[in-house]
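Handout, section 4.2: multi-component inputs.
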Amino acid sequence: MNDDFLTKFRKSPRPEFAQSLYANLIQKRQRSTNLGLVGRYSVYTLVALFLVFSLMLAISPSVRAAVADIIVKLTVGGTTVVMDDPPSTSASENESYSLIWTPVSPKAIQTNQPFLAILPTWIPSGYILQERAALYYSSKFDETPFSSLFEWRNDSGETIQLNILKGSCPNGPSHDPASGCTLSTYILVGLKGQPEVIHINNRPAVLNTGSVTLADLSDPVEKWNPSKWKMNNDAQEGSLLVWENDGRTFMLSVTSKIISKEDLIRLAESIP
Amino acid sequence: MTNNLSALTKSIVSFWEVDWEAEYQVALPKIYNFLRYYTGDDRLAEDLTSETFEKAWRNRHRYRHDLAAFSTWLFTIARHVAIDYYRKPHPEVPLSSVTNIILPETVEELCQQHFDLIRLRSLLAQLSDRDRELVALKYGAGLTNRVVAELSGLSESNVGTILHRVVQQLHIAWEENP
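Output:
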């Protein structure tokens, strides 16, 4: 989409403003900092090395993938999936960050946020609901959570994650009210799979195989980085299923060698 | 190798005070344009930009390089500065009082650009605070969806989805009233 009309109004700060502010800051700096020339040159050298390091990152496929533009838009049955460029031509793992996940137990979510605690009544055997779940806030200033995250794991470490977001047609966060309650979500198309439209309890859903993004809930709580998302774009056994129902949007992510497509649908349809 | 690079990075950032000038040169236009798009007011954007950098300087000891990039930290401060500003009561200023328009070469161009800018500001003003902030971060500051996600607390896919929808709406409105 042409968004030039949004960027063409950028402008440089007035030189007199930039200089005045900088002079003000320098004045403050000189009052509190007095590094010698040796230290200054050392830092410049280090900065140069850092820039080289940044350049190395910038030309790597995974980093390029992070800034890839949208290239495909698929519309089927009222559900629109906006797909990012396939991330890279080799298996890799990326991370993205958002800062406002709050670790809580599933029981606490069920007690305090029942709307976000609607769970499947059937789970493939061997998978155990983990004690660590999470609530997600849209901004630091929100008092109520926007979504919840639950995780099941089996002995082999295979994972099922269920992300429940507030909102469905016509007021969901991923909906465009002006276009007939179209559900839009971004998914990364894997190397080996393609998204397909299926139905969950007679509602359109998008199933994408071969690519899955999981929140990393593995660290100890005191070191937990709830914002760390790991995306494996070559997860041959991974699947992502997105659908909505009754004011909620569900995103079910699975990395498993034993959960079939039928199991995944059964799991999803067991969510009341 | 990775550990060495990590240590190197930390060493560099730990000296960030010395590299203030470089950080300032890079960050100033981004912070300024984020605040311009967010507030729709050039003068106010300058004031809030000053406040952002001064706060950053005062709180530089709080900057944790292991948690966020310096620019991300600056944007976090800028967001708080902008939100704080709007939490305080202020007299309303009509859009027509916009000043400091980019100076083009001809009067005709000046009029058109002035009109376009007011129109864009009017459209942005109709967005929710969250959507306007995302647009300001993405199109004002020119940040990637990933960085916008990091700043806003939204997931990257959410940012992409929301921006896609908002830009569609803005684009339609923009085309409807040329």
